[in-house]
Design goal:
The protein has 149 residues and is mainly α. The protein has helices at 3-6, 11-18, 22-43, 55-68, 72-79, 83-98, 108-111, 138-147.
């Protein structure tokens, strides 16, 4: 799923596909671009290798990983990357978006509120002995002796 293929989708279909609204996606793209520009200005002469994918595709990889629970190997096969590069990309985008003040993600406390009710079911899965014939039984020993000649 490349950015070029989905950028012309309607707002509803874009949200269904990625899990975020189009304007939120644009905020994410702007934050990552601003971060990269600031990083280049801070370093001065940037000799680092350019990214193979566009920033939009990098964000789509991260969203795909969190929304669809796909493995990094499968995402890498989709985009033509090694799974270690997919993992590095996800961590990079995740760290940039964590620092963003415009995008607020609910914290652990909000996600695990106290108004949830849990029902607990206990299952007794203890081991129970199985009745088996004893190895010293006459019938099993005679059967073995008859077959050996």
């Amino acid at each position: 799923m490349f950015w070029e293929k989905i950028k012309n989708h309607s707002k509803e279909n874009f949200k269904r596909l990625t899990g975020v609204e189009l304007r939120t996606f644009r905020v994410m793209v702007n934050e990552v671009k601003n971060h990269d520009v600031k990083k280049k200005q801070k370093k001065g002469n940037d000799r680092s290798r350019p990214f193979k994918l566009s920033i939009e595709d990098q964000i789509l990889i991260t969203l795909m990983y969190y929304r669809e629970y796909r493995t990094q190997f499968h995402i890498g096969e989709t985009y033509g990357l090694h799974e270690s590069n997919v993992g590095k990309n996800i961590r990079r985008i995740e760290n940039i978006l964590k620092k963003c003040k415009k995008i607020k993600l609910p914290g652990k406390e909000k996600l695990s509120g106290t108004n949830h009710q849990f029902e607990v079911i206990l299952v007794d899965a203890t081991e129970s002995p199985i009745e088996r014939p004893k190895k010293n039984n006459i019938y099993t020993t005679q059967g073995k002796r008859k077959n050996i000649r």
